[in-house]
Amino acid sequence: MVSLDPDDSVVVLAHEQFPDRAKTAVGVLRYADYDVTAVLDRARAGERVADHVPDVADAPIVERMADALEFDPDVLLIGIAPIGGGFDESWRPDVRAAIEAGCDVVAGLHYFLEDDEEFAALAADHGVDLIDVRRPPDDLTVSGGRARDADADVILTVGTDCSTGKMTTMLELVAAAQERGIDAGFVPTGQTGIMIAGWGVPVDRVIADFAAGAVERMILDAAEEHDVLFVEGQGTIVHPAYSGVTCSLLHGAMPDALVMTHSAGREAIHGYEDFAIPPVEEYVDLYESLAAPVAPTEVAAGALDTRAFDDDEAARAAVEEYAATLDAPATDPVRFDADEILDALL
Amino acid sequence: MVSLDPDDSVVVLAHEQFPDRAKTAVGVLRYADYDVTAVLDRARAGERVADHVPDVADAPIVERMADALEFDPDVLLIGIAPIGGGFDESWRPDVRAAIEAGCDVVAGLHYFLEDDEEFAALAADHGVDLIDVRRPPDDLTVSGGRARDADADVILTVGTDCSTGKMTTMLELVAAAQERGIDAGFVPTGQTGIMIAGWGVPVDRVIADFAAGAVERMILDAAEEHDVLFVEGQGTIVHPAYSGVTCSLLHGAMPDALVMTHSAGREAIHGYEDFAIPPVEEYVDLYESLAAPVAPTEVAAGALDTRAFDDDEAARAAVEEYAATLDAPATDPVRFDADEILDALL
């Protein structure tokens, strides 16, 4: 369990990548309960969060952790990840300063801070925690095929690619459902979702044989707390590298309904440009026919990321076309709101 | 790399499970190049391998490692695995005796012998190796989507369930192809295959994000050595727990053709009896439509495990029906031979 609570005051490290390449930092700013008191980005020191991301709580952007100490932070959170998930040595002075100031440090890297000798020794000296949210629990095991028995409605996002809004859609749906008085819970499966929610298992980091089992365990646990679960999906079923994770999520979660996410205008798999994105109808068939023998489900709604369009009218037209293709209600839950999707699900 | 070579003299531990529940032991007896000089099974001590498995090289069955030392072994190989892949403490005296006699010990358990303090210390004292074939290399990474560029024909087994003969079919095909003078190689992806071949990565034990990448690396490496690769499949695409591994193999290997394995008469997923095995035609559609957006392929032949039938005539009829359903040539490559499949593939 990640020790982040709503009373924490959090500094988010996003050096040289805020906001466009700092997906975790922006996700945390937008959705986490806790207070972000400063962002570290040496390329933007002196600017403010509101200059770049207008619709979240504002905070100053400072050069380094030493400059953020005046805000009396409890936590330093690493809000960016280089390709490969390594630790960038240029961040070391910030992490060191945070620990020495008594802050816990939260990271979602493949490189574990706990295994770094300097940080581990320093954290012990200062009595702070190093929290590697990407380290899975060591007692995971194979799925028992029991998620369909969960006493909750389970909704899962599936997508046409990575980075199509699977986490965002679920967080918007949780908020919209809660506004209607529904006891809705978010089930995080990736590092950003885990940092936002304060719990969860990073399914992509689990031993392949245990991936569906990790999902099953989260579903069964969360079903005891909530009536409706919104499960963060990962990757896409046609991804050359990550499809196995997507498949484990589909069969491990045994969802009652799927929400299909897509980024308007995207034509190839992100980072794998030789692999074309097939027509959306093919994805619907694939996800539904793959789910059917294990736990039948269907695509009940769509969420379209319309950032490619400047004006709302073009976005609205794209959403309508997407809904027609899916033969299900669709919207952009960030640009507009999540109500249409929620109506289709409940 | 597993240090087993054709000159090694190997003792296989299979206590209380030989032969029917000792899949690894029997696989090694049937297909490995090295010499099995004794089998340890305290429930059958005094009997012989030939009493139970008639078509492999015979060997005595003895009670414990101490009784096998007279055959001057080089290696003790753990040929069984309890559910969960743990180490059975009743085997400890045998492993100890092997190490003290200067034998390497090879195991495919989730429990790593190298991490056992007693065994590690003893192995250091005696200068022997503890070889945990299920420990993946620590430098794996994500797939680059490059297996389709491999300079070899790639054949993958896919199945209707676990334990339907995916490894066996590939080993029979490799042997049949080599008999025809074809430069064929076996690509092992599970612990038994790795023990037989002496190399390979246990794909089910890899970090989920890296599973397709592990397969890709093996394909690209093996394609430099051989003209045709026969890749051991795992699980089934409709498995409640293991489907993610199957999906990673399909997309990581990017095979030119698939061979579909099935166990005649099986109606439910092994160990998951609430999950029915769908009609074989559905599997063909699923595997082919899932592969298509990443690397198109098709089911070119079928391998039917006909052990459920006592007489060859009934087996032959079942094979014919299976071939008709698949709309592709099929046979039982163990009961009959692999030629029909090979003809369909080459």
Q: Detail the poorly predicted runs of chain A.
A: none
How would you classify the quaternary structure?
Answer: homodimer
The computed structural class of chain A is alpha/beta
Total DSSP helices of chain A: 11
Helix content of chain A: 25-40%
Largest sheet report of chain A: 6 strands, parallel
Short description:
Two copies of one chain form a homodimer. Chain A has two domains: 9-132, Rossmann fold, CATH 3.40.50.720; 147-345, Rossmann fold, CATH 3.40.50.
Describe the protein's architecture and organization.
The structure is a homodimer. Chain A is α/β, with parallel strands linked by helices and about 350 residues long. Chain A folds into two domains: about 10-130, NAD(P)-binding Rossmann-like Domain (Rossmann fold); about 145-345, 3-Layer(aba) Sandwich (Rossmann fold). Helices cover about 30% and strands about 20% of the residues of chain A. Chain A has eleven helices and 14 strands. A six-stranded parallel β-sheet of chain A has the order 3-2-1-4-5-6, with helices on both faces. In chain A, strand 1, helix 1 and strand 2 (about 35-40) form a beta-alpha-beta unit. The longest helix of chain A has 15 residues, at about 310-325. The model of chain A has no long low-confidence stretch (mean pLDDT about 95). Chains A and B meet through helix 7, helix 8, strand 12 and helix 9 of A and helix 7, helix 8, strand 12 and helix 9 of B.
